[in-house]
Design a protein that fits this description.
Blueprint lengths: L3 H7 L5 E3 L1 H10 L3 H10 L1 E6 L7 E7 L5 E8 L4 E7 L17
Parallel strand pairs: 1-5
Antiparallel strand pairs: 2-3, 3-4, 4-5
Length: about 100
Amino acid sequence: MVDIDILRKMNRPEKIALTKHARERLAERAITIDDIVNGIDTGEVIKQYEDDKPLPSCLVLGLSVNNKYIHIVVSNDEEYIYIITAYYPDPQLWSDDFKTRKGR
């Protein structure tokens, strides 16, 4: 399982690694590394993906630097936080607290 406290201890730009997919999606969505850092600092794990490979990952709900809710899918090892993707949750797809997908 991914532990939010461990993520927070590691949460510095130089410890954040972006996959090619994440780099492309962040650019498309105008999400910055500062948004990611703030999202982890203010966030909570709302879903664990324990079977993900090569490392377990999780979905973090936090706030961007502009206080917008942001979802960040991350994994980590002892050296880095790996950003898989990040996005601003769509209110039409998510509950009011952005923790649960509608229709589930």
